[in-house]
Backbone:
């Protein structure tokens, strides 16, 4: 989060919202406050520490799985199955164990790291239900800050799901985390990084609802704003619980994420000793735009010759797709939408698969 706290006068400043009491406009960088507001600390110096984002707690942790659903489980299971020998996996931001409990059974070792006690409590409940007396051996859980975590062993795979890397909004934290991951991975080991791309536009909103019990409904509303100059997108996330149609509780949390394109992430990974091999959009349910790909990533394969038919190219073993009749069904009278369209400004999850050099 772009919030600082002074170790001398304990003044806290939020860059995103500014300071209405002192007349500081929203979006004013902390550096612009130097020599103002406080005659004691002068709003400058190393006393002003950046504050981490809030831990997942309350209704955000309670209903996390309701809205995250099964996203990514099948994709990551298939990814781990491609390994010749059983993999050893480190998952950063393991949360409720949504992925971990589904994947740990096919690994020699699975360790999940998270700093939220409430999320880890849910993960612990799941592992005991699934693995029973072998729970702690099949799935290790560590309550720690990923930047301070010390891995006891090297792993073949590291997962950073659900935008975990973007929870750190400063470049120095990105570099520190990737350097740690480089040490935790075996030579030639694999890293998967999920990037969250917000909806297009400076301001946006999403609204979802889940009926968790016959008489109980939960709505999650996100009011988002994206700053290109700061390369951050900000989310005010509200969880509203309704019992028999009447609101019972409302939980609000604010989060900031680093705004990072796949190309930027790939260059950052390359600078820290990784080589991106693939980029997958929405866990394979849609294809990434060509403009998002680096040269050599997700190559289309060998093209047919100028006079070669598709059947001849397939017979020659070339990597081409056979013709599919009636593959597209968008449209219809009087309303369009036989199939959902993927607009260029729609939100997406981009997964980068990289290998340690």
Residues:
């Amino acid at each position: 989060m772009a919030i600082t706290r002074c170790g001398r006068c304990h003044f806290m400043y939020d860059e995103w919202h500014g300071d209405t009491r002192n007349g500081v406009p929203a979006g004013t960088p902390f550096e612009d406050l130097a020599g103002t507001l406080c005659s004691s600390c002068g709003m400058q110096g190393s006393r002003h520490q950046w504050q981490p984002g809030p831990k997942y707690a309350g209704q955000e942790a309670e209903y996390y799985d309701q809205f995250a659903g099964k996203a990514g489980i099948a994709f990551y299971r298939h990814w781990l199955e491609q390994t010749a020998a059983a993999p050893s996996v480190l998952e950063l931001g393991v949360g409720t164990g949504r992925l971990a409990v589904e994947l740990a059974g096919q690994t020699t070792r699975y360790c999940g790291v998270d700093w939220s006690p409430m999320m880890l409590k849910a993960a612990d409940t799941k592992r005991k239900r699934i693995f029973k007396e072998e729970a702690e051996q099949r799935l290790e859980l560590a309550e720690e800050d990923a930047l301070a975590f010390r891995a006891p062993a090297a792993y073949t795979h590291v997962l950073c799901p659900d935008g975990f890397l973007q929870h750190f909004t400063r470049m120095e934290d990105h570099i520190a985390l990737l350097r740690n991951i480089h040490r935790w991975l075996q030579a030639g080991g694999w890293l998967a990084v999920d990037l969250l791309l917000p909806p297009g536009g400076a301001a946006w909103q999403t609204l979802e609802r889940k009926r968790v019990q016959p008489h109980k409904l939960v709505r999650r509303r996100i009011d988002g704003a994206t700053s290109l100059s700061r390369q951050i997108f900000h989310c005010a996330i509200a969880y509203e619980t309704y019992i028999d149609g009447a609101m019972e509780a409302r939980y609000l949390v604010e989060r900031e994420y680093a705004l990072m394109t796949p190309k930027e992430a790939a260059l950052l990974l390359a600078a820290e000793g990784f080589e991106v091999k693939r980029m997958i959009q929405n866990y394979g349910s849609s294809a990434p735009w060509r403009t998002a790909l680096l040269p050599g990533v997700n190559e289309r394969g060998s093209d047919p010759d100028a006079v070669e038919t598709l059947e001849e190219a397939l017979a020659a073993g070339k990597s081409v797709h056979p013709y599919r009749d009636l593959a597209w069904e968008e449209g219809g009278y009087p309303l369009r939408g036989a199939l959902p369209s993927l607009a260029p400004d729609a939100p997406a999850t981009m997964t980068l698969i990289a290998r340690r050099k």
The chain has nine helices and 14 strands. The first strand starts at residue 3 and ends at 6. Residues 1-51 form a domain with the Rubrerythrin, domain 2 fold (CATH 2.20.28.10).
